[in-house]
Amino acid sequence: MSGPTAPEAPALAEDLLLLLFDPRSGTIAGEGSSLFHTLAGAVLVDLALQGRIDVDEHATWSGREVRVVADDPPSDPLLRDVWDRVARRPADVHSLVLEVGPPLRARVIDRVVERGHLAREGGRTLGLFTTTALVDGGTSRRANLLAPVRAALVDGDTPEPRTAARAALLAASGGLPALHQDIPWSGAVYTRGRELQRGDWGAEEVGEPVRRTMAGLVASNLFVTAFVATD
Fold first, then answer.
1. Per-residue pLDDT tens for 155-211?
2. Half-sphere exposure of 19 (CA within 13 A, CB side)
């Protein structure tokens, strides 16, 4: 695996982790397997947005297969590792998410910390045990990501592709209710999130590979569907 050095452009997985981070509590919504699945999904959608992978439209007995469709690998090492894995041997979405997801949390946090958007703060529990907590890094990155995502989910604005991908992945992760202080949770937000998961992005430049990738992730049964709240 490549080191933590972050390339110039943030990966979609970095943006998702930063959005899921609550600066008030220092926690990340969906910690555990849900977060692993979300970060793996973000990497696959990133590769699809770049035109480097595609997902079968129809599932076989093993699920929807992911395959490489471009000869040139991505320069971002976070994406390159997953691209290399698929290039060696195509795999169904479900198996691939389970395989590549667990190592991503630490790598993505390292990159977000390296950029200064999050920071690690040391402390002690009961005066004896050393602890490390994540805290807000004091940049405007999270707020700048949050505003268009909230506009897409709450106000129904037509998002540009990467904003649509962030909103769709947040909805698929089941983490939106935990972000209610930033994105007020309602039945309308749930419905809009489901639309974005289906690829209703209102952007002509978003191709079928991206839509199929999102559909494959949702169909993998690794992503949570939150309960509908009433307005």
1. 999 999 999 999 999 999 999 999 999 999 999 999 999 999 988 887 655 678 898
2. 33
If you average pLDDT over residues 49-66, what whole number do you get?
Answer: 86
CATH number at residue 85: 1.10.3630.10
The residue range of the domain holding 93 is 12-219
6 in a structural domain: no
Task: At 194, list the tokens.
Answer: 């489901």
**Between the CA of residue 76 and those of 15, 40, 118, what are the distances in Å?**
15, 15, 20
* DSSP structure class, residue 10: P
For the segment 124-151, the average pLDDT, to the nearest whole number, is 85
Contact 167, 196 (CB under 8 A): yes
Looking at residue 175, its amino acid is G
Question: Which parts of 12-115 fold into alpha helices (H)?
Answer: 12-20, 33-49, 77-88, 93-100, 104-115
SS3 37: helix
Has residue 77 got a pLDDT over 80? yes
